[in-house]
Structure to design on (321 residues):
């Protein structure tokens, strides 16, 4: 079976409406086939996903992301033309079943948004062939209602980013120049808030089994940036008010000046001097304190050493080892 990519693609906030079945490509660069980079047992995800036993999270990394984060740690596969392999739906089913046989705790679809049509078909096939593991949808949080409707009933755990808060000084529909510069999407926050609400409607708050492993629900990731550039101080109250203080949150400290925050591209970001340095302990502690004050007690925190520990290299067979 060939991958049958979206016709008039509206799978993310960019709403390109290109006919990928006829070979057109939109902002993400995804075409007809599934762009595949790597499948690994990942031991560096949050504890409910990676677990403490040897299994790990069965991470399947797709290429050609629909966002363009300036400091993306996966830039080798997300923003490099020609990276990875083009695979079929059957190939993807084999990858899922192989990970399950290896003993992973879940199937973790990383940057799946441009491929939800094919992923839905692969999941139906894999489930019919015995796949019983929880399915994790691990996206940048810029998913359209259409993409999430396709995934409803197939995904057990949503693991989206909330990359930046909504700037209250902007009018409805006004593009956000900071979100555009940092993530390649001027309407990111508005699209993200709708997506998170829909993910929560579908699956509710995260639930864990007796081993502490996630079985269903929503876990939101937020990377705290230097100088509050991700507007953490607005993201946290929105989560507490809109989804409730029982929301599971992964508050990440692993910012590192990466990708376009190095070398010749650095000059493009001179208006954001904080991005040239790691997050300070003080900045991170302020964000953790705010989360606790808002009652977001289901918050996973990171050591600042994560900035050096979680830098993958996709030129290696296992990017994390
Ligand atoms: S997934 Fe998003 S960026 Fe890619 S073609 Fe579809 S609408 Fe455009």
């Amino acid at each position: 079976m060939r991958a049958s990519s979206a016709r008039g693609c509206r799978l993310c906030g960019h709403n390109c409406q290109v006919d990928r079945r006829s070979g057109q490509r939109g902002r993400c660069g995804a075409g007809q086939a599934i762009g595949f980079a790597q499948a690994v047992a990942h031991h560096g995800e949050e504890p409910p996903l990676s677990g403490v036993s040897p299994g790990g999270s069965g991470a399947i990394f797709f290429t050609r992301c629909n966002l363009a984060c300036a400091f993306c740690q996966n830039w080798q596969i997300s923003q490099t033309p020609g990276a990875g392999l083009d695979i079929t739906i059957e190939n993807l089913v084999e990858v899922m079943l192989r990970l399950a046989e290896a003993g992973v705790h879940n199937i973790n679809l990383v940057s799946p948004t441009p491929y939800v049509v094919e992923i839905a078909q692969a999941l139906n096939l894999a489930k019919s062939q015995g796949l019983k593991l929880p399915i994790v949808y691990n996206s940048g949080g810029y998913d359209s209602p259409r993409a999430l409707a396709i995934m409803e009933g197939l995904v057990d755990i949503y693991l989206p980013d909330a990359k930046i808060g909504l700037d209250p000084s902007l009018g409805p529909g006004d593009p956000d120049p900071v979100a555009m510069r940092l993530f390649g999407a001027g309407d990111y926050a508005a699209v993200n808030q709708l997506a998170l609400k829909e993910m929560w409607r579908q699956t509710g708050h995260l639930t864990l089994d007796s081993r502490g492993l996630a079985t269903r629900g929503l876990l939101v990731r937020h990377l705290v940036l230097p100088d509050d550039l991700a507007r953490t101080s607005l993201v946290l109250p929105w989560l507490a008010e809109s989804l409730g203080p029982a929301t599971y949150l992964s508050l990440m400290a692993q910012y590192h000046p990466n990708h376009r925050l190095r070398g010749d591209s650095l000059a493009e970001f001179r208006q954001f001097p904080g991005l040239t340095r790691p997050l300070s302990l003080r900045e991170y502690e302020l964000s953790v304190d705010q989360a606790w004050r808002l009652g977001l007690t289901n918050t996973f925190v990171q050591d600042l050493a994560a900035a050096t520990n979680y830098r993958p290299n996709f030129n290696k067979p296992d990017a994390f080892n």
Notes: The first strand starts at residue 34 and ends at 42.
